[in-house]
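Sequence and fold
=================
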Amino acid sequence: MIVTLAAGLAATAAQIPAAERSVLMDVARQPVLKRLGKPVEFVVRRLERQGDWAFLIAAMQDKSGRPISYAGTPLASAEAEGIVSKDYVALLRLSGGQWRVIDAAVGPTDVAWADWAEKHRAPKALFP
């Protein structure tokens, strides 16, 4: 479904070409790898694109398809205390022909993106 907005067109995950979606996922994974020190796969819950912006909400899992474990990562104690989720959210922007992560949250338990539209001047229509 294409939604026409005053600011232009928004594309849902189903409309983003497979090659571009793959690039978005690879770029989005980089902050997770840096923060956790281990690779993850995403189960995409929401992927929206509007112009040069994209927004991702995903569940993180390991290569076997199990929810990610934070054991051995900086979030291990937060997981033990139950104060971290298995989710990941990211705001990406296309600049100079390359996607870059502008903001991200690993394991958020709140609406991490609440101020991202204003903070980064991203289209409000990207966000739920």
Remarks:
- Helices lie at 18-36, 76-80, 116-120.
- The beta strands are 3-5, 8-12, 41-50, 53-61, 87-95, 98-106.
- The domain at 3-126 is CATH 3.10.450.630 (Nuclear Transport Factor 2; Chain: A,).
- The chain has a mean pLDDT of 90.
